[in-house]
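Entry 0007
Protein: Disulfide bond formation protein DsbA
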Amino acid sequence: MPPFRPGLNRRALLAFSAAALVVAPLGLGAHPALAAEEGPAKIPLDQLMAEQALPDLWIGDPKAPVTIVEYASMTCSHCAAFTTETLPKLKANYIDKGKARYVLREFPLDPLAAAAAMLARCSGDKREAVVELLFQTQRGWAFGNNPLDALTTTLKQTGMSQSAFEACLNDEAMFKKIDAMRRVAETKFGVTATPTFYINGDRRPGEIPASELDAVLAPYLK
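Output (structure tokens):
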């Protein structure tokens, strides 16, 4: 799938939220490609850690020697694989032991991904759990014929009411902040697709399988 295009704006999101978006031309049923080898190989940490349009919601000790930033799209199957397969190992072996901290930043590739990212942010302190739920159930809501209905049903599991769901998707300020984060990643860091990781500022495009995690992090923990 190509990167999130400027034409897929708030109007497209609102059309989607009204179930009027034609999903086929946007490729919502396709699996986004791995991140391309674009952008600088290393971003200075002060730039990477600069204040975002939405606050970073970190997992782990801020003094940990390894800082991992992931740019992810909620409709990206490779991002889902990282969250469901690799993140548990990252938490158990590195985050919980004070060796690493991790944050997911929104980089929506399409209106459906933008909607899911907004809904996760609208969940407040449940955001981490909602992100994990959406990735765990991605096949059920992202790639079907009625993604809006499926997304609504999924979010009800978290206690989100229909009125809260609709209010979130119509939150113009939230949409602009999600899009601002995407634009910064794209224009300043050269992010074009997902997942794209930065480990202590070093760019690593593409999924990190659980089997490769130790080897990937070992150079940062010498």
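Curator remark: Confidence is low (pLDDT under 50) at residues 1-10, 14-37. Residues 63 and 98 are 8 Å apart (CA to CA).
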